[in-house]
Structures are given as C-alpha cells and as structure tokens.
Design goal:
The chain contains nine helices and six strands; from the N terminus they run H-H-H-H-H-E-H-E-H-E-H-E-E-H-E. By secondary structure, it is of the alpha/beta class. It has two domains: 64 residues, DNA polymerase, domain 1 (Orthogonal Bundle); 129 residues, HAD superfamily/HAD-like (Rossmann fold). Strand 3, helix 8 and strand 4 form a beta-alpha-beta unit. The radius of gyration is 17 Å and the shape is globular. The protein starts with 8 loop residues before the first helix and ends with a strand. The relative contact order is 0.13. It comes from Cellulomonas wangleii. InterPro entries: HAD-like_sf, HAD-SF_hydro_IA, HAD_sf, PGP-like_dom2. Pfam families: Hydrolase.
C-alpha cells in the first residue's frame, strides 16, 4: 500500500520526525528512509532507540493517527496505480492488499477503493514482512496458489517477503533503491504496468519496465 499504491511515505516520515523531536531526539530523513517497509515492532524499536519514551502500542497509535489524518484529506495515488487496480478488477482478477500498515489505515483505504477481495494488514499476521506469511495468508484467503500470483513491492522487507512466498514479483521504484534478485521484474512506475504486462510476468517472464521503454 504505502509507497507502491499511494505516496504516504512523506506522511510517515513527517510523523516519525515530529514524534522523535517531541521526545527530545533527532530523526533524520535518512533514518526515515531506512525504516520504510519495516514492521511496526521494528519501527517502534528504532524510534525508542532514538529517544521516544513510549511503548509499541503508543507509538503505533501516534503514527497511525497522524498518517490517517493526512490520508483523510485525499488519497495520494502513485502514478498508474488506480488505473491498474481498476483494469484488474474489470478483468475479474482477484486482488489482495498486503501491507505492513495496521488495519486502522489499510481497511479505510481498501473500503474507499472498493477493489480488493482480501486485506492482509501488519496486525493480522504473526510474522510480518520480511517473513513470507503475509503473502501466503493472502493467497490462501484468495483461494489461489501463491505461485500463480504477481506481487508488487517497493521496500526491501516487502520484496523479501514476496520473493520468499513463491509469488512472481515486481519491484517498483519508489523512495528506496532496490536491488532485486534474479527472476524479479522491475518497473520504474506503475504507469508501465497493464494487463498484458501482468499476464507475461505471471507466465514466467522477467521484465524491466523503465521510463525509456
């Protein structure tokens, strides 16, 4: 969700900086980028190490509240994301939203979009990304073989999760420079992705979709 479909990473970064500074610490944009895609437990631990004197639940509540308020002003779609989701839905392709964000953010977004058959949020799994459990849970909920799925990811932990699950994977350039392993497709933007591209990747092709293509 965050970074791949909607550009909420600046909201998370701003919330993290505000929280750390409120507790007398320092949190740089580089710190924020390094934490992209991390589970809430990992993120909270890093923020605590930076001086935030709150427990994990309190940190999660503070961050989720700030980001939810920002998103409520309007969904900040990434280029091409909404069009791809609508094309898949029109073609009858089942879709799962698999995100490290908690349900307090993922569920309202999914409800507003109305195109997802399944939502797997970070607080509904025992082992979040980079473990494959989120993607395996999504495939089970969809009733499909995970090997027949195509996963889109923009973070290192998400990429590791999707690859380990056995799905076909597309690394989407966003706020983090990714170095995907062999066999992983890559797209500079979802503007390069359509139904034909997804079908080719699902069939086993590895594609590199760049702005110059």
């Amino acid at each position: 969700m965050d970074g791949t479909l909607i550009d909420t990473e600046p909201y998370w970064m701003a919330a993290e900086i505000e929280l750390v500074e409120a507790h007398g610490g320092v949190w740089t944009p580089q710190d924020a980028v390094a934490m992209i895609g991390s589970s809430m437990d990992v993120s909270a631990g890093l923020l605590q190490a930076a001086g935030v004197a709150l427990d994990v639940a309190e940190i999660a509540d503070a961050l989720n509240t700030a980001v939810r308020a920002a998103v409520a002003a309007g969904i900040p779609w990434q280029p091409g994301a909404q069009e791809v989701l609508r094309a898949l839905h029109s073609a009858g392709v089942p879709q799962a939203l698999v995100t490290s964000s908690f349900g307090v953010l993922a569920t309202p977004f999914a409800d507003a979009v109305g195109l997802f058959d399944v939502v797997v949020s970070g607080d509904t799994v025992t082992r979040p990304k980079p473990h494959p459990e989120p993607y395996l849970a999504a495939a089970r909920a969809l009733g499909v073989d995970v090997a027949a799925c195509v996963a889109f990811e923009d973070s290192r932990s998400g990429l590791a999760s999707a690859v380990a699950s056995g799905a076909r994977v597309v690394a989407v350039d966003s706020h983090v420079a990714l170095d995907p392993p062999a066999g992983v497709s890559r797209a500079s933007s979802l503007l390069h992705v359509d139904l034909d591209v997804i079908a080719r990747i699902a069939a086993g092709e590895t594609l590199h979709l760049r702005d110059a293509d």
